[in-house]
Specification:
Keywords: Membrane, Transmembrane, Transmembrane helix. Its main location: membrane. One of its GO terms (cellular component) is membrane. It holds the Pfam family TerC. The structure is a single chain. By secondary structure, the chain is mainly alpha-helical. It has one domain. About 80% of the residues lie in helices and about 0% in strands.
Length: about 260
């Protein structure tokens, strides 16, 4: 591959690593919430099963999507899914804003061990689909390579998606605590992450509408320079805006919150 191609693939992989990091932190937060009512020993086992399930579902989704990615109906479903979860999250957080009230009994009482494990695995499935679809949407408009195809995917596209998936799992296992802390200090980054997920869904929708069987857009539009510049400029704007617009919580407030909990 020439230098320009390597740089384009490296840039997409870098963006994917950042997106996977935020989604991995979100995944870790959800799983931690699900298992917090269990005793410490069972909690560790539930987290272990959750991580094992994340590996299985992530790779299962990857190999399944590699054979279905060129079917426009699958692309359309993927676009709707990504836009849908982003819209749901943003509406739930900024519009609906449900009041969360936890009593002492609700905190202590929870599902049994295996029921909790099942809930964790279901969450893993949702996050696996989310992660792989976001990775596919980022990778499919990259230039084709001379690498052998895997299913319906170009070998280079598959390699980027595979690398992003593995890195996401590594982040979830070893660096989730950092991202959880980052989200806690800058809560606005979570909103930025879901805006990015929604924008990636728009990209997949554009790719779908440019499919030869639909031809709402010209076939070359999804790979054209104007669309690529528009997509990456907006993505960069969301990321930078999310960082600067998310107010960092002061250490004094965090310390007082810790004191209140203790």
């Amino acid at each position: 591959m020439d230098f320009g191609l390597v740089m384009e693939y490296s840039w997409v992989l870098l963006i994917l690593i950042g997106l996977e990091g935020i989604l991995a932190a979100d995944n870790a937060l959800v799983i931690a919430t699900m298992v917090k009512h269990l005793p410490e020993e069972k909690r560790k086992k539930a987290l272990f099963y959750g991580l094992a399930g994340a590996f299985l579902f992530r790779f299962g989704s990857l190999f399944l999507i590699s054979y279905l990615v060129n079917i426009w109906q699958v692309q359309a479903i993927g676009a709707l899914y990504l836009i849908g979860i982003a819209t749901y999250h943003l509406l739930k957080k900024h519009v609906l804003k449900p009041k969360v009230k936890e009593t002492k009994t609700s905190v202590k009482k929870g599902s049994g061990f295996w029921a909790t494990v099942i809930k964790v695995e279901l969450a893993d499935i949702a996050f696996a689909v989310d992660s792989i679809l976001a990775a596919v949407a980022l990778a499919v408009t990259l230039p084709l390579t001379s690498l052998p195809q895997v299913g319906g995917l170009d070998g280079g596209h598959f390699a980027v998606i595979l690398a992003g998936g593995i890195i996401g799992l590594v982040i979830m296992r070893f660096a989730a605590s950092y991202f959880v802390g980052l989200l806690d200090r800058r809560p606005g980054l979570e909103t930025a992450a879901y805006l990015i997920v929604g924008w990636v869904g728009v990209k997949l929708a554009v790719y779908t509408m440019a499919h030869p069987e639909i031809a709402v857009l010209s076939e070359g539009f999804a790979k054209s320079a104007p669309w690529k510049i528009t997509f990456w400029s907006m993505l960069l704007l969301i990321a930078v805006g999310g960082w600067f617009l998310s107010k960092e919580k002061s250490q004094d407030k965090n310390k007082s919150a810790v004191k209140d909990v203790s």
